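Troubleshooting log. The previous structure file for this entry was overwritten by mistake, so regenerating from the original sequence record. Sequence copied from the archived sheet and checked twice against the printout by T.R.
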Amino acid sequence: MHSVTGKVENAAAVAKEKAEIFKAKAQEKAEKAAATTKEERQIAEERRKVKEYEAKIKLHETKAEIIQDKLVHHHHPHRGGGVGHDPVIGATGQHYHDPAAVGTTTTAPIDPVSGLPSTTANYPPAGHTHTYPHGHHHYP
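Regenerated output below.
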């Protein structure tokens, strides 16, 4: 059901982006018609480009939110009757399981230069050094 909802939301986001681009082109055409100099026409064109890029950025942000919602709502059928767990940043297809951390979230430290989550986080968490492929849990 979530994949259908995601596809519908994705299609709606694409339609909204196309409408924004169409609107920007119509505004550009009106501004160019009212323009009296070459520079005014160039300004109208640049404004259109900015609006198109903003629409594309909004589309990609929406797609990222849809994917994130899908991850958050994704449940694994094993371990406690379908309790899901968050992905670990920096892991390459492997999940680091810590029974004490079930129900908590893991966030990467923020890089002070870029303001984005750091990809150089120290994983696996201290004291937990072994991993098993997804679905293969070996409890001590």
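The chain has two domains: 2-73, 86-140. Archived copy saved in two places this time.
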